[in-house]
């Protein structure tokens, strides 16, 4: 591919455009050339009647700042008209090389997610990006808990390319459960889902976009426009004979108190989780439950090596697999009374955290070696044996980078399934951040059942050798 060039006047300044196979390089007047990766270009067109070259892209204005939408309209001289038309056409083609342009999006906005700014953020920062990219939007504001579930349950699947939530992880939980109860559940769960992070924790967004972009709503919009479908495992959570889909995490003990015990402090944003942790540590109460699991791997070094192996395999791209369209959801493979191959955890535990996707919040990479589709659930168990309040506080400094993983008192297990039996009446149980009865339950992995949009094809979290070398 050879480079394609043209020239136009932007606000009276001569502007040079050079299209390479990976980027559009734009030089306005005497300014430094700006390199816009083709992934960030969302629209390009040439309007011959007005001789206008229109380019839209998202770019950082400062090195670590958020992404911003830029519309660049250039007036083209007669002599450059053909080159400008050619540049616009080829830019658009290359910018959408692997994805369908003009996606049709069902967008669910929770006006009360996080600190309640979802609507304003969507109108100001997100909708203009979708419109610039020519997406076709069908917007709904949720009015109460359960709306998103009902909408997903009866979604006319052929009408949309993706379902978008403007909220936190709670809305995703509802959507996936709505899909699981759709007339065509497998097909519904193939509908790509992606979040615009306006909730408190925004764990899924952090996992898809990474720590730098996880709270950036324009980066999330770009992922929705350009991301590819990625199959992911989800979990079947069974309690009192009822099956629920969990996509991110289950927590009991300290970590559930941190999440659910701080609901009244939503105004704090995600600072409420740190506050909750400190409050929970003052009590430092073991959680009275019996935990058993069907383990597949418990060797931390091996799990870390597997993560690296996977990353090194051509960017760890996880292909999207089409499942049987009209079939039902898979049956549970693991009986509720099965005991063969199961282990009961022998020590008192401060908390159990189990799930998929490295981050559960900005301050906590709970499952650093999690893989989107290994068919396993990562279980973290913090024993209170030989572990004090001071140890928790000291170790939480490294929590955003997943450093807790290497603590000897932290048990890390990859399992096919696990079970919790409460031994007391009172306690919190958090499923994907939502409150569930503190009663006996079992969790089993349902491999590659759901579909997310990802620009990377893997979880974008760096759990690097630096933490391993400390060992
Ligand atoms: N209009 C509404 N009014 C009140 N609650 C709503 C409304 N729409 C949805 N909900 C409920 O709000 C709850 C919280 O939403 P969500 O989890 O998405 O945000 P969050 O809790 O702020 O974020 P996170 O889960 O990332 O911490 C969900 O249970 C959802 O069902």
UniProtKB/TrEMBL annotation:
Residues 100-241 form the DAGKc domain. InterPro entries: ATP-NAD_kinase_N, Diacylglycerol_kinase_cat_dom, Lipid_Phosphate_FormReg, NAD/diacylglycerol_kinase_sf. GO terms for cellular component: cytoplasm; membrane. GO terms for biological process: sphingosine biosynthetic process. It holds the Pfam family DAGK_cat. Keywords: Kinase, Transferase. This is ATP-NAD kinase-like domain-containing protein. It comes from Lentinula guzmanii.
């Amino acid at each position: 591919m050879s480079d394609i060039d043209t020239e136009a006047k932007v606000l009276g300044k001569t502007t040079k455009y050079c299209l390479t196979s990976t980027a559009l390089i734009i030089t306005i007047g005497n300014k430094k050339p700006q390199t816009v990766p083709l992934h960030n270009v969302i629209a390009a067109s040439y309007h011959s009647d007005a001789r206008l070259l229109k380019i839209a892209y998202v770019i950082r204005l400062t090195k670590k700042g958020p992404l911003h939408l830029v519309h660049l309209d250039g007036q083209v001289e007669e002599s450059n008209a053909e080159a400008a038309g050619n540049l616009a056409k080829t830019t658009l083609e290359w910018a959408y090389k692997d994805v369908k342009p003009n996606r049709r999006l069902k967008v669910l906005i929770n006006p009360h997610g996080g600190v309640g700014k979802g609507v304003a953020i969507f109108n100001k920062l997100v909708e203009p990006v979708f419109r610039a990219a020519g997406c076709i939007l069908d917007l709904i504001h949720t009015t109460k808990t359960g709306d998103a579930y009902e909408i997903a349950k009866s979604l006319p699947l052929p009408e949309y390319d993706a379902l978008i939530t403007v909220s936190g992880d709670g809305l995703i939980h509802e959507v996936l459960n709505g899909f699981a109860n759709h007339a065509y559940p497998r097909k519904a769960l193939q509908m790509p889902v992606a979040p615009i992070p306006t909730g408190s924790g925004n764990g899924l967004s952090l996992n898809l976009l990474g720590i730098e972009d996880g709270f950036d709503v324009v980066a999330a919009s770009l992922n929705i426009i350009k991301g590819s479908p990625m199959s992911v495992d989800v979990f079947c959570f069974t309690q009192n004979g009822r099956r629920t889909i969990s996509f991110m995490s289950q927590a009991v003990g300290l970590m559930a108190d941190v999440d659910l015990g701080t609901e009244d402090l939503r105004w704090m944003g995600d600072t409420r989780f740190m506050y909750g942790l400190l409050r929970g540590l003052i009590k430092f109460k073991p959680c009275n439950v019996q935990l058993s699991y069907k383990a597949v791997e418990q060797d931390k070094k091996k799990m870390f090596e597997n993560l690296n192996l996977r990353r090194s395999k051509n960017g760890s791209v996880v292909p999207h697999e089409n499942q049987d369209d009209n079939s039902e959801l898979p049956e549970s493979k693991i009986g509720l009374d099965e005991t063969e191959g199961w282990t009961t955890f022998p020590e008192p535990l401060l908390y159990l955290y189990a799930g998929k996707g490295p981050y559960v919040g900005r301050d906590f990479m709970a499952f650093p070696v999690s893989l989107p589709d290994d068919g396993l659930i990562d279980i973290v168990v913090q024993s209170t044996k030989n572990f004090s309040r001071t140890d928790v506080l000291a170790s939480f400094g490294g929590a955003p980078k997943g450093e807790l993983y290497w603590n000897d008192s932290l048990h890390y297990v990859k399992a096919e399934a696990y079970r919790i039996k409460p031994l007391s009446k009172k306690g919190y149980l958090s499923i994907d951040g939502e409150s569930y009865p503190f009663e006996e339950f079992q969790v089993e992995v349902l491999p590659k059942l759901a579909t997310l949009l990802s620009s990377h094809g893997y979880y974008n979290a760096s759990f690097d050798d630096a933490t391993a070398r400390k060992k």
